[in-house]
Amino acid sequence: MERKSTDQKSRRKPSGAAVIRSDLTRSLHRALFEEWAEYGYAGISLERVAARAGAGKAAIYRRWPSKREFAAGAVHAAGISLSDFSDHGSLEADIGAFLTANRRAFRHPLIRRVLPDLLAERLCAGELTSVVDQIAEVRRENGERLLDRAVQRRELSASIDRELALDLIPSPLYWRMIIRGRPISRAELDRQVTALVAALRVC
């Protein structure tokens, strides 16, 4: 009987070998962004990323088949494409929440350095083009819902130029914080909200 029990134990597969640890995945994402911020996407070394995360390179390839898929997963997981598009009761409150979420993201030192490089990959038709396009598509769809709510509340005209509106909403904040590299106070953010609401009503 004891031999049978021993044989059964010997036939069991190691339980930890195929387990994808979420804490290590987060560490790999963080290490990737640190590497990306320092060297740019083109200069990323997966060996260095793994070392930063205290892991082996195999830990990366168990999760993602390529550097592109690794980067795409990290971008989505980190929420670079994420903003607050939820319903806050009014157009002014919705835009305020959206800009506040973006301001918080743009203040992060890694995002400030990675985001321009990510967009440069898009402009150069690099391998992350489809990733950026997917992010942009999701943001536009969520932005459409924000505008739909404002139209339903009669805060905006149903004939609003939606392409212009969706281009306009994030632009002043991005220009201020990412292009010019300058901070923005809460009072200045509130003034942007007021200006954007006024502009959207004549779009």
TrEMBL record:
Cited InterPro entries: Homeodomain-like_sf, HTH-type_TetR-like_transc_reg, HTH_TetR, Tet_transcr_reg_TetR-rel_C_sf, TetR_C
Coiled-coil spans in chain: none
DNA-binding region: 45-64
Domain HTH tetR-type as annotated: residue spans: 22-82
One of the Pfam families matching this protein, by short name: TetR_N
PROSITE patterns per the UniProt record, alphabetical: HTH_TETR_2
Keyword Transcription: yes
Domain of life: Bacteria
Signal peptide, first to last residue: none
Keywords: DNA-binding, Transcription, Transcription regulation
Record flagged with keyword GTP-binding: no
Protein name (Swiss-Prot/TrEMBL): TetR/AcrR family transcriptional regulator C-terminal ligand-binding domain-containing protein
